[in-house]
Amino acid sequence: MANVITASKLTLAYDGGRKEIIKNASFSVRKGEFVFITGPSGSGKSTLLKALYGALKPKTGTLSVGGLDMGRISRSKLLELRTHLGIVFQDYKLINEWTVEKNVVLPLIIAGYGLDIQQTQAKKLLRHVKLTEQAERFPLELSGGEQQRVGVARALSKNPFLILADEPTGNLDEFSSNVIWDLMENACDQLGSTVVVVTHRIPTIFNIPYRHFIIENRGIYEVR
Amino acid sequence: MKSVKDHLMFLLPLLAILISVEFVIVFNRVTQNSEEKLRQSYSILVVSEKVMSPKDFRRIDSHIVSATPIDKKTIAKEIARGMQNAADAEILASLPHFYNLHLDRYLSRPEVEKIRQKLLAAPGIKKVETFGESLRAKYNLFLFLKVIFWSFVGLMSLVSLFLVVKQMEVWQLAHRERMQIMEIFGAPMLLRSGVLFRMGIIDALLATLLVVGLFMVLRYYYAPISGIEILIDRQELLYETRDGVILAAIALGIVVVTVFSVAIRSREERE
Question: Which stretches of chain A sit within 8 Å of chain B by CB?
């Protein structure tokens, strides 16, 4: 099966290359795989995720996402690539002036889908994340768990080939966490999306096969 | 309330720019009109030994648009009035030809002097007289006012433009989070900046309407009672329909340029 992500001798750094976070890491993720990346705080998990959606350029080595070299990708190509990604953030990154429904369909708005498709997809996703009743409310009127479910629904709205999630269940209640893991499992298992989740803790009950990478001492190692 | 204040902070400098632009347009129209009047009342008198046609004069200098022969009989009569025995016919025969030349526009003193020299150098032309020194003083005053006016309007527009850009930056900061989120999900710059364009375009159209309204009031209500001859005669000097189009284009142009400059500066920097 084709690789969705390929990293070869990848070094990621901040401060104009002075502060190296990940050094000489090589790994690959195939289409349809579910990957957990764990590691201690400050080990570089979120940094790796930033590099995967193109907010951080590799210092050395190569990183390819969906066949595109993230070190050389042009701004327009990067924006186009991002429209095919589903990204979930620990701090949700919802647009507070927009309703829940409009937040969910942001990727569809960007892709230029019609209003009817947006509404149909929003209804379906809000039902999946159990927020049908909250469609017309604004993010700041919701609990943290509910906001994160909106974030996950948004990430799934355009059936992305790659889902990147940064601590999606960080401080959430058990109900919200379960809803989110179910959706992630489903996206991978039923829709064939590749999922990369950065987390402190892998859920104890997980129903589909997965790979597990750990980031330690600036290296990335596969442990399962 | 905050939203109204935000709009006013953008609208007021934009209004200042548009009012300045409209004043420049009106001022130019008024001065053009006055220049045309000066041009019409200004002439060069040429005394020539031979008969010359307007074409001959145009060949000497292209600024000459017409050459009207002055009736020699009138001159001969004037001369004969003081003499007891002189016959009109004799005087008439000995008189050279007189021409009144008109120019295509009101020219500066060195330019008129140049034409004068060219005329004098032409075969047959004996004398060239230029008139209108009093007109020149009037014209120089016009030029002086123009320079003062342009300097003031230029400075005011510059300061206003600076305020417009600053307000656009304030808007961008207020909407930065939204724009960043949209960028993460791949929104192109036009879509990300949609909210800035919307706000800017609304204010641009509003500012245009206000300025158009103001100058229409001046044209239809102020001009007839202004007591200023040129405005009473030609009210359209204060506002023409195409002014509205020019103002709208300038206002929208300012919005587009400022939104783009702010959006480009605020886009994600890949580390």
Answer: 14, 53-57, 75-76, 78-83, 85, 87, 93-97, 106-107, 109-110
